[in-house]
């Protein structure tokens, strides 16, 4: 990005008090209707976040039909029940189900991304997803198999290719997104995260060793038994720090290396901010028995918006769109039911 280029911030105006009302009603009605209302709850939740996210004074919007989501959710739930029953009947039958899921995974991914894109809009112009099915097969099935053979060394390459697939598959109207982030930058990010992980583990191990160096074996054994919970906490803290470091680096790489026509993006997430965000969100959600979930979601969205901006002249007048065919929600709901991760970074 050149120093003289115009930057337009992304602004999120959601408030915890407002969203809590939506969240608690969604939760109660979903319970009372045995999950049927969850489709309407999903649309209300997404609409709230979309309609409170602004660029240049104009908000996004979400258009999915709750009925379409409900149909997809019924299908996803039916498949989940069949899988659970097959696991009880026979390991072989369960294995067949898993293989079938893997075979259909690329279709689920493409359909889910297409459904979300076509039901999202900005300035009345719909997004779209045109990623190829073969690319999903390559990046989510074939390359992960090769990654095992390379003892994980291929993973940064796969991560870069997946992010490029997600970015370049999207369209704003008819205009494609272009991804310019490089494989070498992903390898550097993962290498730095690995070195940080090894360093923190060594530091923690050395500190524990020094505490026990002058003690008897019996005392050391007893103290280690008493320190199991603190040790688990330290281990989880180290993983959180390294995960936040890597996520900040990857999101900055992906967003700052993506553009759509003359408009680019700039992201400057900081690792220490994400560590504090993740740790305090988790702690307060647990202590509040889940009641502070809306606060954590609003807080997380606000931070990501504050750290993201558009680069260049935000003239959207020349972007044009076209009518998109309606996409069923089956792929989206199956992916959600079986926890298929499709986020950037």
Helix content: 55-70%
Shape: globular
What distance separates the N and C termini? Answer: 20 Å
- Kindly state the mean pLDDT as a whole number? 86
Strand order of the largest sheet: 1-2-3-4-5-6-7-8-9-10
Compressed to H and E, one letter per element, the order equals: EHHEEHHEEHHEEHHHEEHHEH
The quaternary structure here is: single chain
Helix vs. strand class: alpha+beta
Beta-strand residue percentage? 5-15%
What is the number of beta strands?
A: 10
Explain the overall architecture:
With 345 residues, the protein is α+β, with helices and mostly antiparallel strands. The protein has a domain at 82-180 and 322-345. It is 65% helix and 12% strand. The chain is built from twelve helices and ten strands. The chain has helices spanning 16-32, 38-51, 66-89, 91-118, 133-149, 155-169, 183-212, 217-226, 228-256, 271-287, 293-306, 330-337, and strands at residues 7-12, 53-55, 58-62, 120-122, 125-129, 170-172, 175-179, 258-260, 263-267, 308-311. The chain has a ten-stranded antiparallel β-barrel with strand order 1-2-3-4-5-6-7-8-9-10, surrounded by five helices. A hairpin with a 2-residue loop joins strand 6 (170-172) and strand 7 (175-179). Helix 3 runs antiparallel to helix 4 (91-118) and helix 9 (228-256) crosses helix 10. The longest helix is centred in the middle third of the chain and has 30 residues, at 183-212. The two termini are 20 Å apart. The mean pLDDT is 86.
């Amino acid at each position: 990005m050149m120093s003289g280029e115009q930057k337009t911030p992304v602004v999120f105006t959601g408030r915890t008090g407002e969203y809590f009302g939506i969240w608690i009603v969604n939760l109660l009605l979903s319970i009372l209707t045995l999950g049927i209302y969850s489709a309407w709850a999903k649309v209300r939740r997404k609409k709230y976040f979309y309609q409170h996210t602004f660029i240049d004074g104009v908000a996004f919007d979400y258009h999915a039909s709750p009925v379409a989501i409900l149909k997809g959710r019924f299908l996803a739930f039916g498949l989940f029940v069949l899988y659970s029953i097959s696991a009880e009947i026979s390991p072989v039958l369960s294995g067949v189900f898993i293989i079938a899921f893997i075979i259909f995974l690329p279709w689920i991914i493409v359909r889910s991304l297409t459904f979300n894109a076509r039901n999202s809009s900005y300035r009345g112009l719909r997004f779209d997803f045109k990623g190829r099915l073969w690319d999903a097969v390559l990046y989510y099935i074939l390359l992960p198999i090769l990654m095992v053979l390379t003892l994980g060394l291929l993973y940064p390459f796969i991560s870069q290719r997946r992010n490029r697939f997600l970015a370049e598959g999207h369209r704003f109207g008819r205009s494609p997104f272009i991804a310019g982030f490089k494989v070498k930058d992903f390898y550097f990010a993962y290498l730095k995260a690995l070195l940080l992980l090894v360093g923190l583990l060594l530091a923690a191990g050395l500190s524990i060793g020094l505490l026990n160096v002058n003690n008897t074996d019996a005392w050391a054994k007893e103290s280690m038994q008493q320190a199991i919970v603190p040790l688990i906490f330290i281990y989880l803290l180290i993983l959180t720090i390294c995960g936040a470091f890597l996520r900040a680096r990857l999101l900055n790489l992906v967003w700052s290396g993506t553009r759509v026509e003359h408009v680019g993006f700039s992201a400057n997430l900081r690792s220490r901010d994400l560590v504090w965000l993740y740790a305090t969100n988790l702690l307060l959600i647990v202590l509040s028995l889940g009641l502070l979930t809306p606060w954590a979601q609003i807080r997380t969205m606000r931070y990501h918006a504050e750290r993201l901006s558009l680069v260049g002249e935000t003239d959207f007048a020349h972007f044009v769109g076209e009518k998109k065919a309606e996409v069923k929600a089956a792929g989206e709901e199956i992916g959600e039911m079986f926890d298929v991760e499709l986020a950037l970074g």
